[in-house]
């Protein structure tokens, strides 16, 4: 009987438990549990409901037991940049504030007064995003210095759940790099930078690489879920996992991890921290085996998800007031599925307006619908008045961003890219795939859909002896999953 491995993959809108095994060299997946992720208002901020997520993690482990499958190992990945602080007894201090919360407004200025952006980028290679941990910590220094004073450790979200599962605190490298506090060359926390920012060094310990064993489940947890297993570190940053699952045929492919964000880039051996790279806001995120993901964050399906929620009258953050917008339909008048939205976009194929999808105006607007309309009006273009026009505008804007990012990537790496590999939920959107091929002029290879969970499993499977190395795992991924080819017309 083959070994099973369990990936717990938690994204901004839901979490999944996916079992994987290798049968005759092919990877097989089985989703055994799914739970929603939601935000709540607490202390004047948008926060993750980590207790709800923890319950989801436990429920999924129990679902394994109910299926009679005991995984050899378990690994957790989530989005990046968010963290919790723990006191000396391991108790959480304050909330897990979500990265789109407004607390970081103006915090870049606070950081830049201490270190110029050029020096910061030269050290860390991390793009400037106002939601980065470095700015969140600056917000905390301002609003809740007492929490930082009382803190004994800082754990990124997956590190925190690993701690709850095992009682062991480890700081994983790939997620740590997203903080903007890790030195890209030394690959450890940049102590000089921590001192410059006035952050207590005791919060930043040794970094652990993907593949490291965290430990067995705590006795109480093993008893509660009904079995014992070993928790190990995948690339705990979901994008780090997703890139591992890209079944690229050659070195001339760009990778696109398509979910709430569109993360578009390549893998490099060394970080690129030139001034031009900083200016174009490309990032060098740490990956497994110290490979770097050189990529750009593009607003991604977040725009479409937000529009859908608004049309359907669904709250993103529980307890937050809903914003007003006007279109040819009213909120909740009917329920829109993603295929409905695609059909609407197709019906307005000639609508020409485009916005800069990477404008901060779309990061956390009160209303995405109103924000897109405002951007069109502000740039003297036709304002979308129907769902179809709005969706057409979003698709055009996103794919134009893809095209520009690839051009930037080519210039910065001095390489010509000849195809796009898309992994993640967004690769199911055929309309987006076709438009991407059309606008970039490159063939698109779409799949696998479960990129992140597969990448999580890859590290566990290499650790478990199923694959000799990443190349062998990627070969198996190519053989195991359906990958669609979409050619530019
Ligand atoms: C994708 C992702 C991106 C990161 C953003 C915030 O889920 O992890 O890589 O920039 O979320 O953490």
Automatic annotation (TrEMBL):
Short name of any one Pfam family annotated for the protein: FGGY_C
Enzyme class name: transferase
Enzyme Commission number: 2.7.1.5
Matches recorded under InterPro entries: ATPase_NBD (IPR043129), Carb_kinase_FGGY (IPR000577), FGGY_C (IPR018485), FGGY_Carb_Kinase (IPR050406), FGGY_N (IPR018484), Rhamnulokinase (IPR013449)
One example GO MF annotation: rhamnulokinase activity
The protein's name in its UniProt record: Rhamnulokinase
Matches recorded under SUPFAM superfamilies: Actin-like ATPase domain
Transmembrane segments: none
């Amino acid at each position: 009987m083959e070994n099973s491995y369990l990936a717990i993959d938690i994204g901004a809108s839901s979490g999944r438990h996916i079992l994987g095994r290798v049968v005759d060299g092919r990877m097989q997946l089985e989703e055994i549990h799914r739970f929603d992720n939601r935000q709540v208002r607490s202390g004047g901020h948008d926060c993750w409901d980590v207790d709800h997520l923890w319950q989801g993690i436990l429920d999924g482990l129990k679902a394994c037991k109910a299926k009679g499958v005991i995984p050899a190992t378990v690994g957790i990945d989530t989005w990046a940049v968010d963290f919790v602080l723990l006191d000396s007894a391991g108790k959480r201090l304050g909330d897990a504030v979500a990265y789109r919360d407004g607390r970081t407004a103006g915090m870049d200025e606070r950081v830049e007064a201490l270190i110029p952006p050029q020096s910061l980028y030269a050290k860390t290679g991390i793009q400037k995003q106002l939601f980065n941990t470095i700015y969140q910590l600056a917000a905390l220094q301002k609003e809740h210095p007492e929490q930082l004073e009382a803190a004994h450790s800082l754990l990124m979200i997956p590190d925190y759940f690993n701690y709850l599962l095992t009682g062991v605190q480890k700081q994983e490298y790939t997620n740590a790099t997203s903080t903007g506090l890790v030195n890209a060359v030394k690959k450890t926390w940049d102590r000089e930078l921590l001192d410059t920012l006035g952050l207590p060094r005791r919060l930043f310990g040794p970094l652990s690489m993907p593949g490291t064993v965290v430990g067995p489940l705590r006795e109480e947890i093993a008893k509660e879920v009904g079995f014992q297993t070993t928790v190990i570190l995948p690339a705990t940053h979901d994008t780090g996992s997703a890139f591992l699952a890209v079944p690229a045929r050659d070195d001339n492919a760009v990778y696109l991890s398509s979910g709430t964000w569109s993360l578009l880039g390549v893998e490099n051996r060394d970080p690129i921290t030139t001034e031009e790279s900083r200016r174009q806001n490309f990032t060098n995120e740490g990956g497994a085996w110290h490979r770097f993901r050189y990529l750009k964050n593009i607003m991604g399906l977040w725009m479409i998800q937000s529009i859908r929620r608004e049309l359907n009258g669904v709250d993103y953050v529980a307890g937050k007031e809903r914003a007003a917008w006007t279109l040819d339909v009213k909120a909740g008048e009917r329920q829109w599925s993603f295929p409905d939205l695609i059909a609407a976009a197709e019906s307005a194929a000639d609508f020409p307006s485009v916005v800069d999808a990477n404008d901060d105006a779309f990061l956390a607007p009160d209303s995405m619908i109103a924000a897109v309309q405002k951007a069109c009006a502000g740039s003297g273009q036709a304002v979308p008045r129907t769902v179809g026009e709005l969706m057409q505008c979003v698709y055009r804007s996103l794919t134009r961003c893809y095209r520009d990012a690839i051009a930037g990537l080519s210039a910065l790496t001095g390489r010509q890219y000849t195809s796009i590999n898309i992994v993640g939920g967004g690769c199911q959107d055929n309309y987006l795939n076709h438009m991407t091929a059309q606008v970039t002029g490159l063939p698109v290879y779409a799949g696998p859909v479960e990129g992140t969970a597969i990448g999580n499993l890859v590290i566990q499977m290499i650790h478990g002896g199923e694959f000799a190395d990443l190349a062998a795992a990627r070969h198996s991924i190519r053989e195991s999953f359906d990958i669609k080819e979409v050619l530019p017309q």
